[in-house]
Specification:
Elements lengths: L6 H18 L4 H8 L8 H9 L8 H21 L10 H10 L6 H5 L2 H8 L12 H10 L13 H12 L5 H16 L3 E3 L1 H6 L10 E5 L4 H16 L3 E5 L21 H13 L10 E6 L27 E6 L1 H7 L11 E4 L2 H8 L22 H11 L6 E4 H15 L3 E4 H6 L31 E7 L5 E6 L4 E3 L1 E5 H6 L3 H18 L5 H10 L3 E5 L1 H8 L6 H29 L9 H4 L1 H5 L5 H13 L14 H5 L13 E6 L2 E6 L8 H4 L8 H12 L10 E3 L5 H13 L4 E2 L2 E3 L14
Parallel strand pairs: 2-3, 3-4, 4-5, 5-8, 12-13, 16-18
Antiparallel strand pairs: 1-12, 2-11, 6-7, 8-17, 9-10, 14-15
Length: about 750
């Protein structure tokens, strides 16, 4: 039965459509005409449901109508809870901060750092009209997950106020004479949706709880203390909302000796199961279970003894860990072994796996300080095969136990698990360490980076934390002294490519975005001390992007084209230039990161390896050598699912799921269409992610990886009918194209895989 929207509600719909026309240039005349013909309809939720039900690929503009109606509801709720007229949309900003500080939602730092006059001036920057930039799902996600509410769940904060509070928080320690200008600039960047901050920052900045960083990576020492202290550290970080990556390649394998007693080690699987229980038990701010990824080397003896089957549904459930994610660290030599064939074309490459503890016992390799080294501690440079030579030494040693397989047998197990569960992730360890700009802290040929994070985009120096001693002090307190290792912290933020590129604001945007990320390092309160130390030692940040497919559609570029590869190369070189330049300018103002001297930033090798030879790059290289850079690592492309939706665009660097589909989570199911869908862009969205030739995706990613100093969350999308040979070819092509990592293998038969919320940026 047709129903009609009453006059007042009709006015709201018309107004929203007219604004959609003004803001987006949409042709809404037909929508207005059809809306005017509707029969009687109640106000409020019914009109919103009407708008939502009309979001289709034929009428995508209705998402902005729904967003306007939803925003009106948010204004009413905030006005009711804060005690002002809903017609004002936004109330008194200073009173909001006062009230939420008084009840303990906001941190006292805001009122301590800023005067009433300053807060009032900043409140005048709020532009309610910028709420019109949201589509419906973006505004819903922002309101549902991130806007500040009181302890009873009542809405107080509105979208523009969240952006302004984040800006105030991140700029609070800047010099007072220009602090307000920087706050306004950060608000400009966020409120125009030119960028998004990481989920922990978006949710927690300005509040009295939670931390601001996205992910953490730890290295587990091969000792009972190391294993249990890692578990304790992971529990504390998981509680505060961080995604976790853990390297287990140093832990001894099943059947190894303990204190010279043979065959007593239970291997890595029981310890990983313990971490699985921690992830489930220690949820993140009461909202979701912890998210943990465990990495193991393909030359570790336990790789085929339970690790690759941890998440699969076959086998002994007592050796399963369904709630963690897995990653495999792979050297170039293994990929070469996969390609060794006999005269009949059959794979014959052998691969030997070892216990890392036994390697250290038998081989006796030492570093310059006399510390024992294992195979995991070497990587291959292009000119010198440090790992390959040590691996061959281990193979040739008659007293070193090993388990031998065909390399293809291991790869087959990897691919079977990937098609069933999406994991393990692939981590190409030699390329990662070759490209590391800060390898000088350990030395060429010695591994500095053992694994990545939960979303495979972070590549930073790692080392295990160890116990120095334990004693009782004069007051009877038990004291444990730990030597901190490099416990990786990633601080993320992403450029909304279609908005920022089309508005031509990268040169203005990247400096304020880089400053915001750098300030997170000093403002954050991390519960694990060694993570805090590492964060300030390297000052690593991860500036990334989302909306790649959206941008291609707007530019009229097909995914499967040489033009897309060339565009990726050109655009990401520009982003790299602006980011390095911004970090250099921050170093000039605030000082370089502590390990700059001797790094490839300092020597210029970073620029030379990438063949940056233009005049502007040469000038920047000279400036960096003189001034330094503020941040040891600068760029990383995260998955960006939730925050891309808030920004009204497509996820990360992924192709779109479909032109029209249903977005479904635990508490909602909405119709979604491709962003900026019309007769011009349709053809560039038409081939969805599982239809596209993944080799074009690899080539695009290789083009952008050249300019990214860390890595990229890069998924394979394959049909469930894919042949093993075809999937193997994709992995080989990714390795040959010098990718550092690949993320999930997503087949059409898998249930939708939950993304790591922490890495959304």
């Amino acid at each position: 039965m047709n129903m009609k929207i009453e006059t007042a509600e009709m006015s709201s719909v018309e107004k929203a459509l007219e604004r959609a026309t003004d803001v987006y240039g949409l042709d809404t005349s037909e929508l207005l005409e059809r809306a005017g013909e509707l029969a009687e309809q109640a106000k409020g939720e019914q009109s919103l449901l009407y708008a939502l039900n009309h979001i289709t690929m034929d009428q995508p503009e209705w998402t902005y109508v729904a967003a306007e109606l939803y925003a009106s509801d948010l204004y009413k709720k905030a006005a009711e809870h804060r005690g002002y007229s809903a017609s004002e949309k936004y109330g008194d900003f200073y009173k909001l901060i006062q009230e939420l500080t008084h009840v303990g939602i906001y941190s006292k730092e805001l009122l301590f750092s800023y005067s009433q006059e300053e807060i009032t001036e900043l409140g005048q920057e709020v532009e309610p009209e910028r709420d019109l930039l949201f589509n419906y799902i973006g505004l819903f996600l922002l309101a549902d997950r991130y806007l500040a509410k009181d302890y009873e769940g009542r809405l107080f904060e509105l979208p523009q106020e969240r952006f302004l509070v984040i800006a105030m928080t991140l700029m609070q320690n800047e010099p007072k004479e220009r602090r307000l200008k920087l706050v306004k600039e950060a608000y400009w960047a966020m409120s125009h949706l030119y960028m998004t901050v990481a989920t922990p920052t978006l949710s927690n900045a300005g509040k009295s709880f939670g931390q601001l960083s996205s992910c953490f990576i730890d290295t587990v020492d091969d000792s009972l203390d190391g294993i249990y202290l890692n578990n304790w550290d992971i529990a504390r970080l998981s509680k505060d909302g961080g995604g976790i990556g853990i390297y287990y390649g140093k832990v001894r394998a099943l059947g190894s000796d303990i204190k010279k007693f043979k065959g007593n080690s239970s291997g890595v699987v029981p310890w990983i199961r313990l971490l699985n229980d921690t992830a489930v038990s220690v949820d993140q701010l009461g909202q979701r279970q912890g998210a943990v990824a465990i990495y193991l080397d393909v030359f570790h003896k336990d790789i085929m003894n339970g690790f690759l089957d941890l998440k699969t549904n076959n086998g002994d459930e007592r050796r399963k860990a369904h709630d963690i994610f897995t990653g495999v660290s792979i050297p170039d030599l293994f990929m070469k072994r996969l390609q060794e064939k006999d005269e009949n074309g059959r794979s014959i490459g052998e691969w030997h796996t070892f216990c890392p503890h036994q390697v250290k016992q038998v081989m006796g390799w030492k570093d310059a300080n006399g510390n024992a080294l294992g195979l995991e501690d070497f990587y291959d440079e292009k000119d010198t095969k440090y790992f390959s030579d040590k691996y061959q030494e281990a193979v040739d040693h008659p007293l070193l136990p090993r388990k031998t397989y065909r390399a293809m047998e291991i790869m087959a197990r990897i691919m079977v698990s990937q098609l069933e569960t999406g994991t393990p992730y692939m981590f190409y360890r030699d390329e990662v360490n070759r490209q590391n700009p800060n390898k000088h802290t350990r030395g060429r040929g010695l591994t500095s980076i053992y694994c990545s994070n939960l979303c495979t985009e972070i590549m930073q120096n790692m080392s295990a934390t160890t116990i120095v001693k334990e004693y009782t002090d004069e007051d009877g307190n038990l004291v444990m002294i730990r030597k901190p290792g490099d416990f990786v912290v990633c601080n993320l933020s992403s450029i909304n490519l279609p908005r920022a590129v089309k508005a031509d604001v990268l040169e203005r945007l990247v400096p304020i975005q880089t400053r915001m990320l750098d300030n997170v390092i000093d403002l954050n309160t991390i519960s694990v001390g060694q993570a805090e130390v590492t964060n300030k030692k390297y000052r690593a940040i991860g500036l990334g992007t989302f909306g790649w497919h959206h941008l291609l559609a707007l530019e009229g570029i097909h995914w499967e084209s040489e033009k897309a590869v060339e565009f990726a190369d050109k655009l990401y070189e520009e982003i790299a230039y602006q980011t390095i330049r911004a970090s250099m300018q921050l170093a000039e103002e605030k000082g370089a990161f502590s390990q700059f001297s001797g790094s490839e930033w300092h020597t210029g090798e970073y620029f030379e390896r990438r063949n940056y030879t233009s005049e502007r790059w040469n000038d920047l290289q000279q400036q960096v050598a003189t001034t330094g850079v503020r941040n040891g690592w600068m760029m990383a492309v995260a998955p960006n699912s939730s925050t891309a939706k808030i920004g009204g665009s497509t996820d990360g660097i992924d192709p779109l799921y479909a032109v029209e589909y249903a977005e479904e989570k635990k508490n909602f199911k909405f119709k979604v269409t491709a962003p900026d869908l019309d007769h011009n862009t349709y053809d560039f969205y038409r081939r969805s992610r599982h239809m596209l030739d993944q080799k074009w995706s690899i080539r695009q990613n290789a083009a952008r990886q050249r300019h990214i100093d860390q890595s990229i969350s890069f998924n394979f999308y394959v049909p469930h009918t894919i042949k093993a040979k075809e999937l193997l070819e994709l992995h080989l092509e990714a390795w040959k194209q010098n990718l550092k990592t690949t993320y999930y293998v997503r087949s059409t038969s898998q249930a939708e895989i939950e993304e790591c919320e922490a890495c959304q940026s």
